[in-house]
Amino acid sequence: MRSLLLDNYDSYTYNLYQLISEACGVEPLVYKNDEISIKEISKLLSEGVVDNIVISPGPGTPTRKEDIGICQSVLTTCKEVPILGVCLGHQALAAINGGRVVRAPEPVHGRLSAVQHTGHPLFADIPSGSGQGFEVVRYHSLVVTDLPDCLESIAWTCGGHHAVRLQQRGNTDDDDGHQERCSTADPIITKEGREAELIMAIAHKSQPHFGVQFHPESICTKFGFQLLHNFYTISQCYIGHTSISRVLPDPPMEGPPGRSLPPRPWPSIHTAPAVGRLADQDPLRLVWRCLPGLLSKVAVNKTSGSELLFSRLLKWEKDTFWLDSSATDRGRFSYMGGKGGSLWKRISYRLHASSSKTPQDGSKLYPESDAPHSSSHHSRTGGVVTEEDSLGMVRETCVSSFFDYMTELIAGHSLVASESDAKGLPFNFWGGLVGYLGYELKAECGGQNAHTSPTPDAAFFLADRVIAVDHLHGDVYVLALYRSPSPQEGIGALSSRQILSTDLTSAEPPTSIMKEDALHWLKIAMKELLALAVIGDHGSALESTSLNSSDVLIKQSHTHRDTQLTSKVQKHDVVSIDSECSPSNVSSLVPPFHLRHSKEQYMANIEVYRQALHAGESYEVCATTALERPHAPEPSLLYSTLRRLNPAPYSSWLSIGGADGLTVCCSSPERFLSLDRGSVLEARPIKGTAPRRPADPVEDARLAAELAGSEKERAENLMIVDLLRNDLGRVCEVGSVHVPGLMEIESYATVHQMVSTVRGLRREGTSLVECIRAAFPGGSMTGAPKIRTMEILDACEGHARGVYSGSLGFISFNDTFDLNIVIRTAVISQAYNVVNKPESGRQVQRRSSSAEVSGSSHDIEGGQDSPSERFASSSRGASDGCSGQLQSDSWVSIGAGGAIVVQSDTGSEYEEMRLKARALLQATGLCDGLHGPAIVDDAAAPYQRVERVMSRGTF
């Protein structure tokens, strides 16, 4: 028996897909509510292709045609077909038959309720009543009331609703093996009274139509599997036959999900289409060498060794990258590289200019019943790819989408690896693409092309030369790729004696120029690395006659710089961010940051988001803004400071050459998505943040415990976990998506975070690009449902997010990838001029000092200029910045934000946004020479950035 699953543009539909597949044994057909006609559905039913219909949840209201689509016709036309409506589908069933759908006493999103039922067959073998174990997750703002005679209520809430609690690690005795470490005993907070008996399920008295208000597919709903199995059983009985010919193969794992995934052999014998070799392209070969323990010979401390390697070999130049696991206890490997190599390219992509008609006044978005829904009008906009190789040759190409371009690029770079490669390299990045996907690429993932980003919408290097660092063992690897038609396998690992003694001009078996180039670079890189090791072992030039004195000074000067910076960071512990930096201590040449949205506008946007939540348009909205200023700190100093102040497992330095002069200084703690050689996909969404107080261990522990027990943060996290399960469910094997870590607290240098882990086994034949596209943008930066919520954000934010909120990392030619979420990041652009605005004669009433970062603000005494005005007046005669540390004609932007849910307090959300910018402001302030964080002035800035005129196709 097979189901037709109608998707109302929800972000949990593929959780239903997975659950239906497991419960019924056959994967359902999935259509969006505007891409199939009632005639086509009738044909599927009459031909026996499908036997029943499931209507998904979704945003909006069942009385709005744009929200419910074809589902209205299905409910009125398919009267003899078993139909199950979930949430919005449940409400549509009631509305079509004359029931009332009204606003609930209060919206309930990501919270649980006990349910009592009548014993209807839909609830067979499911307990009933408070304390009996049947707890369900609810995501809704509307409820069904006043049922007509043809409908009956078969389940309702008993008691209130509460946040989820977690069981301790260890084995669980879940009801059906499909929930993971969720517990509903001993609720944190319970709402009673008006919530006592809300309708949670209905049934038609004469037709096989049923509806449930709750979400059986949520990770924390009990007996969801049993409910879907019951619907399958009802469908069998009603139709009078069983369709056992279309059954799934055995599940890919034994026992309940949540414990482990058996990885597939690598490489897979069923390669995905994007991994295959193009007919006109020779495969790639890999040459590499490991230098055991080298990092410990050059390191001053845990994190300085890799920075020394980067500084010595790549020198912070343009067109360099450093995927930097600066929090080495959570990130084992770092990767770095630069321009050069026969395969190297700089790749940028710009979407065609936005033609969106998204309303710019967010307050007018959501009248009670007629808000527009444009999900059916999303189109792939396409854009221009610009490639520049190491010789400076430039090529521009119009493409239908960047994801399609990446698919073709990867297909043309098939890597042939040896057994020694697979066994000898403990990490996944063997060369490939390194760069970022900007947030505006949502336009190619179902979202709108609402705003034009001043920075490229995607930028990558094709990196054919890589240095990898193993922080666990202290080993350093050098790797190079080259293209070779030779049928022999990759050259694999070579000994240092072989490489260092090889005369590449001597008579040896003929090799291609590309192979010679790769071997030559390997030789040079190893010499540089071994020279650093010699300096580390001997400590002076007198003991190493083959090295000149400048080589000896590298480590000494680096040690001095590291010691100075560490001392400075320690002296200005993150706790000191809460202390005020008086105007007299601030150089008049240091420009203040200003908010892209003023404090008042940011808080007004939050109120619009809350209205959308109450109207049923969204469950959670991830609001963002940016703190921006002209005259950026010197990029290498800023990143070097940031990685010490706020070490993180997904930190990154990305310096992109070309016209834009873009540099990304990232200290992200969050993984967006990764794929390993065993085809295991993993997401690690973060939702829930609290400040740290490392100088006060008792207070620090209290803040962590408060975060762990926060009802609001748990609701936020649960919603995003369910969203990520959905995104992985689109591309993973049935039954493989699971949550091994739910709402765990991780502590970083400046904040505590609530983190969950979602994993699944990639479906055979699915390319890695399809996996990325299915989940992009990361749900922790959008909210849920993703498509509708992004529309809300587009209207209120009014600006492109750019690099911020996107993803940065590597896509390896060995069919793996690891991408972060771009948060806790400064983006420095050289593509702007900064000019003073005409004098307005305005009276500045207040400024934001470092004190306001932690929530306090201070009026400026009469006659005292704001930081913005002092900078404006001084900059008329000096544009070189502060003490030579600030670059003229540059712009720095720090994105920050937070998730808005029904329980959000507007003022607290503003402070959380400022908290997330804290480490970046502190690092910038240290670079500026201040005794605290950089100044933030929330008055209107007296300067503005002027974008350099450029073609949308130019990088």
TrEMBL record:
Residues 871-884 have a biased composition (Polar residues). Residues 848-857 have a biased composition (Low complexity). Its EC number is 2.6.1.85. Pathway: Cofactor biosynthesis; tetrahydrofolate biosynthesis; 4-aminobenzoate from chorismate: step 1/2. Residues 317-478 form the Anthranilate synthase component I N-terminal domain. SUPFAM superfamilies: ADC synthase, Class I glutamine amidotransferase-like. This is aminodeoxychorismate synthase. It comes from Chlamydomonas eustigma. The lineage of its organism: Eukaryota, Viridiplantae, Chlorophyta, core chlorophytes, Chlorophyceae.
